[in-house]
Structures are given as C-alpha cells and as structure tokens.
C-alpha cells in the first residue's frame, strides 16, 4: 500500500460559525471556519470535512460562503456534508468549491439519490456518511441510525454499506455512535466488518482520544481517519502527532 | 513582466473554482471562458475535467473547444489538462463498457485500474523523469488523486530523432499508470495539483512561470 493514510479534521458549522468550540490561542476568532481551515492546512491536514449542522435554510446559505472562502485559501480536498438531499444540492456545493459531498439521512430515506448523484458526477464525489450503533438483533450487530444517532432505522449497517457501494458511493465515512465522545478509541469491530464487506476507501470516525488510538483503526482497515474535538481541543501539533503515531506503526503518511 | 493570463476552459465541468483559485494564488490572472478569441489569446489554457470521460468529451465537442485547443498546440502555445482534462488527450476512454473517442494527441486507452481498492483516493507518490520541468522542486512529493480510470500502457511511436518524445510520469495503484505528461506546449496531470497543497501549488507555479 502506498496511498498515504489521510488525517481529516472535521469542522461542525452552524450559521457560518464552527460549533463544538475550539481552544486554540492566538486565533483572532476561534469560531471562524475559514481561519481554522487554514490553520489545519498549515498543520498538515490531508483533507477537511465540513459538517453543516444548520437547521434553517437561511443559515444554510452561509455555509456556501464558508466553503467558497475556504477554497480560495486552502488547496487541499474539501468534503461537505449535512442537509444534502438532491442532485441540485450537490451541484451547488461543488460550484461553491466543495470537492466531495457526504450524504447520510437522505440516502437512507431514498437510496436512489445515490445513483442519481453518482451518474451525474461520478462516485468519486460522493461519500456515504454512516452513523452506526450496536444492535445485537441485526445480522452484523450494527444498525444504521439517522439524526445524529438519535433515530434507529432497523437497517443493518454493513448491508447498507454494501448497497451504497453498489449504488455508487466512492467512500464510506463510518461513524460509531457508541464510541463517539468516549475518547476510548475507535470501534474496531465496525471498521473490520465494513472492510470485509466493501472495497471503497473507509474513513473511521468516533472515539479518538489520543494519537495511539489511530494505528489500530488503520490496522482494522481504515484508509483515512477523522476527528473533531481531539484536534479542536488538543495541542496545536495534534495533526502531526497523529501522523507520527500512524507512521511509527508502519503505515504511510504524507 | 506582468501576471500571465490564463483561461480556464468553460464547457460545463464541475468544480473549476479550485483550479482558478490555485492559479491566482501562484501569480496568474485567471478568466473562465469558452470564447475562441479568449482561448487563443491567453498565455495559458487550462482544461479541467471531472466525471465520466464520455460526458466530458461530449461537452467539450459541444463547446467547439477541441479546434481551439488544437490550434494552440500547433502554435506551440501552452495548454494544461487536469484529471479527465488530462485523459481526453489520449485516443479513447472506456467506462462501464462504453467507448468514447478522445482528442487523440497521444496513443493509449483510459481504462479502469485493476486495483483491489477503487476509487484511488488520496495522496500518492509519482515517478517523474529526471529532466522534468513540471516536477522541478517537487519530484519527491505526494499529490492528491481521485479517480478510478487511467492510461496504463504507453506505446508512443518513437524512432524519429527530429521528434522529441513526450516525458511520461508514472504512478502506481494496483497497476502502473500514467500520472502526468509533458509534451512541448501540452502538459497534463491525472492527479489534482490544485488540491495537492504546497507541492501542487509549486507544480502550477512551474507551469505559470513558463507562460
């Protein structure tokens, strides 16, 4: 394997501001997503993910501004998710400067939208964002949830990965609802099961609390790793600390 | 000397703003256009491309641009292609069993990579020739790829000492494939220099400095 394991900070954006907060000092305006994006870019991030957590349509317009301004200053891939429901949503995001879009709830509600987006722009622009939680009653032991893990769907998470790959997603962002926020490490079993089921790249998310948590996720089959709080609240060199841990475990990083 | 004028070819390709932003960042004046006069007058022409080979070729033909691109190359005027905008300079593309004719500047077929994991997404090394101008200063860097298709065989008709053969840069993902070509006024890359951080900006600066 020669492709570098990607380290991806995730920025939750609400009404044009980064929420969940950030701790960095010397940042004139800690809630400015464009400034934060520049900082992560300088720190060596391989890609950035923006999650538009805005509830209202009016505030959603500001997300396009955020993407546009970021793309003027930051020359690494930008993935944008949150509220993506239609081909038109995707088109608007790509024209604002997004390189990839992630889709979650809308794809569960109407899986055909994956085919529609993929046929128009290719599967390489589309990331399936999957919030999975443990459910022993399903064959794989994992269930697809929506609305940030609050709503169960009864759909088997691994079967959903297979269906989404078949329909045309180019990557899968695996977010473990059980591990999210615990800082105890990634849900390795979830990553292993998804890796065994699909051949598109996997992005592991949820549970990272320290650099040592990352190599096991890669070992389990992740091609990229994503975290928010660890980078927002950790020391400013956390991106390189994570890369160093992955590299010392024998995996390539940029 | 002022800033060179670059036209980014407007034929309906997806995210062209990144390329425009990156070119501005490295010192070019950038304009999006499909006007033949603008295309021919520009110091450099950038051909972007995202999506399916066949669709991109259809859109390119519908815009009338292949003729102006050809005139630029014949007149030794710089042209640069990125991603599918690189692939279209080969003979043809095959996607999902559908064949489409390319611009035919070089021999070769754009085909799906025979790799255990597709798409090929992420930062990878390339192997440029020692005398490469495109990769000057960035020969040992990783660049950002996002694709499933590429040209995997190179059968350029060499033998005529009066013709300088194109310089080919290879990369590897499951199989060897062509990552970039430098051929007189025509440069192209399978990866996205506009998304490849500092290394990609340096590569684009190398191009802009030739304009």
From TrEMBL, chain A:
Could you tell me which pathway this protein works in? Answer: Amino-acid biosynthesis; L-histidine biosynthesis; L-histidine from 5-phospho-alpha-D-ribose 1-diphosphate: step 5/9
Keyword Amino-acid biosynthesis carried by entry: yes
Query: Do you know which InterPro entries this protein is assigned to?
Result: Aldolase_TIM, His_biosynth, HisF, IGPS_HisA/HisF, RibuloseP-bd_barrel
Which of the seven top EC classes does this enzyme belong to? lyase
Which Enzyme Commission numbers does its entry carry?
Answer: 4.3.2.10
Matching Gene3D superfamilies: Aldolase class I
The subcellular location is: Cytoplasm
Which residues does UniProt mark as catalytic?
12, 131
Main localization, broad class = cytoplasm
- Key words of the record: Amino-acid biosynthesis, Cytoplasm, Histidine biosynthesis, Lyase
Q: What does this protein do?
A: IGPS catalyzes the conversion of PRFAR and glutamine to IGP, AICAR and glutamate. The HisF subunit catalyzes the cyclization activity that produces IGP and AICAR from PRFAR using the ammonia provided by the HisH subunit.
Q: What is this protein called?
A: Imidazole glycerol phosphate synthase subunit HisF
UniProt source species: Micrococcoides hystricis
Q: What is the lineage of its organism?
A: Bacteria, Bacillati, Actinomycetota, Actinomycetes, Micrococcales
This protein's gene is called: hisF
TrEMBL record, chain B:
**GO molecular function terms noted in the UniProt entry:** lyase activity
Known catalytic reactions: 5-[(5-phospho-1-deoxy-D-ribulos-1-ylimino)methylamino]-1-(5-phospho-beta-D-ribosyl)imidazole-4-carboxamide + L-glutamine = D-erythro-1-(imidazol-4-yl)glycerol 3-phosphate + 5-amino-1-(5-phospho-beta-D-ribosyl)imidazole-4-carboxamide + L-glutamate + H(+); L-glutamine + H2O = L-glutamate + NH4(+)
Instruction: State its Enzyme Commission number(s).
Output: 4.3.2.10, 3.5.1.2
Q: Which UniProt keywords apply?
A: Amino-acid biosynthesis, Cytoplasm, Glutamine amidotransferase, Histidine biosynthesis, Hydrolase, Lyase
Q: Which residues cross the membrane?
A: none
Q: Which InterPro entries does this chain map to?
A: Class_I_gatase-like, GATASE, Imidazole-glycPsynth_HisH
* Job of this protein: IGPS catalyzes the conversion of PRFAR and glutamine to IGP, AICAR and glutamate. The HisH subunit catalyzes the hydrolysis of glutamine to glutamate and ammonia as part of the synthesis of IGP and AICAR. The resulting ammonia molecule is channeled to the active site of HisF.
Q: How does it assemble?
A: Heterodimer of HisH and HisF.
This one is known as Imidazole glycerol phosphate synthase subunit HisH
